From TrEMBL:
Presence of keyword Transmembrane helix: yes
EC number of this enzyme: 2.1.1.-
Highest classification ranks of the organism: Eukaryota, Viridiplantae, Chlorophyta, core chlorophytes, Trebouxiophyceae
Transmembrane in keyword set: yes
Organism: Chlorella vulgaris (Green alga)
Family: Belongs to the class I-like SAM-binding methyltransferase superfamily. Erg6/SMT family.
GO biological process: methylation; steroid biosynthetic process
Record's protein name: Methyltransferase
Length: 429
């Protein structure tokens, strides 16, 4: 029994009737929405329940596309070590994945497809903007300079980085539907003069060598077949002396590859997020150095500290049982939309995939075996300088060091009000 003032609730009855409550509640929401209006596709900040689609996938092909997507993996049995069967098909798989999930990401999470720690006296929106603003400061972007957003999604971070720095940002994504969404948001927020999204494979970028003053990636390069492939392209398009900052999805030192439960958790994260594989934090470090970058800093930003009142996975709902309940409720809404043919057939399968991986992402965070934000700061050596010479030069530039995470957070409330949509994240319940 749960009591709140004069209100009490028999939790046993709720548990016994949970399915009926969810279906009934979703059906009621659907009926109310349909009585109000059938919304147009030109939705504003994010799609409503009545505007969910398969993105760039034709409505009649969503179900088959989900089946094809699952078929790209060597195994669907969690705990056996899931990887993509053919690395040359990774780009197609990622394109297919984001065609399926982009609407659900925006609907259930927002325009910024990444995690962040929740800062003191800040809500999640402000904390996520601070996370993005910190990247802008770290890469030293400013007016007259242009940065590359490697794997930009629908452009949430791009708009924050451009807005707080005064610089320009060009984002690249494999998915045409995301380009359309990013362009729409850029125009609506008055940032089309500073922000541009282009379609392309970040393993073969359509940019000239030395085209950018800086680069960053927000939990996006995890989709590359190997990190060396995408890092080498970033290296090529950066000017000498430029900084590249990336947040990587990796396993932590606590991950035990001989532990079946650990492997099963990571397998679910791989399959449910369109990943070809999962790397370790050390492999990510070495990949950057192998292509020529100097490694300036490497640390897991997800680690608890005085600056974070809540860990990143709390954004998913606080605990696994609560997340399961929220996911079941949202899933029932999607199922009703599908039943009423408002959403395409097969979209509930996509939601279930994201829900299942959300549980594993949370469990991986709680167990400390997975992090979505291992921060790596690389620098391309200046012309004529060896990696060792450039590293020694950086060691003497303490006064030019990037600001702390907490310092970036100070500007978050105003930036949030101006640039953010009140959401942000990576998985959908």
């Amino acid at each position: 029994m749960v009591s709140l003032g004069n209100f009490s609730l028999d939790t046993g009855w709720v548990a016994d009737n949970q399915q009926n409550l969810l279906i009934g509640g979703a059906a009621g929401l659907a009926a109310l929405g349909l009585l109000y209006k059938r919304s147009s596709r030109d939705y504003k900040k994010s799609p409503s329940s009545f505007q969910l689609s398969g993105g760039a996938v034709d409505a009649g092909e969503v179900k088959n596309t989900v089946k094809e997507y699952y078929g790209e993996y060597n195994t669907l049995e969690r705990g056996k070590g899931a990887v993509m069967k053919e690395s040359q098909k990774v780009a197609d798989l990622v394109d297919k994945f984001y065609s399926l999930v982009t609407d659900l990401y925006e609907w259930g999470w927002g325009q910024s497809f990444h995690f962040a720690r929740k800062l003191p006296n800040r809500d999640w929106s402000a904390s996520e903007v601070a996370h993005e603003a910190w990247a802008a400061a770290t890469i030293r972007l400013g007016p007259g300079k242009t940065a590359l957003d490697v794997g930009c999604g629908v452009g949430g971070p791009m708009r924050t980085v451009a807005g707080v720095s005064g610089g320009n940002v060009v984002g690249i994504t494999i998915n045409e539907y995301q380009v359309q969404r990013a362009t729409y948001h850029n125009e609506k927020q008055g940032l089309s003069g500073q922000c541009k999204a282009v379609r392309g494979n970040f393993l073969e970028m359509p940019f000239q060598a030395g085209a950018f003053d800086a680069a960053y990636a927000m939990e996006a390069t995890c989709h590359a077949p190997t990190l060396e492939q995408v890092y080498s392209e970033v290296y090529r398009v950066l000017k000498p002396g430029s900084i590249f900052m990336t947040y990587e999805w990796v396993t932590t030192p606590r991950f035990d590859p001989s532990n079946t439960q650990h492997v099963a958790c990571v397998d679910e994260i791989i399959i449910g997020n369109g990943l070809p594989d999962m790397r370790t934090w050390k492999q990510a470090e070495e990949a950057g150095k192998a292509v020529g970058f100097n490694l300036l800093e490497s640390r897991d930003v997800a680690q608890a500290s005085a600056a974070a009142v809540q860990p990143w996975y709390m954004r998913l709902g606080g605990n696994v049982p609560l997340f399961r309940w929220i996911g079941a409720f949202n899933g029932s809404i999607v199922a009703v939309m599908e039943f009423l043919r408002i959403a395409p057939r097969g979209l509930s399968d996509v939601h279930k995939m994201l829900f299942d991986t959300g549980v594993s992402v949370m469990e991986g965070g709680i167990e400390g075996i997975f992090t979505p934000m291992h921060m790596l700061i690389f620098q391309k050596p200046a012309d004529g300088e060896s990696q060792q010479q450039q590293q020694g030069k950086e060691d003497e530039e303490d006064k030019a060091a990037p600001p702390t995470y907490a310092a970036a957070a100070a500007a978050a409330p105003s930036a949030s009000a101006k640039l953010a949509n009140g959401k942000g994240g990576k998985s959908t319940a």
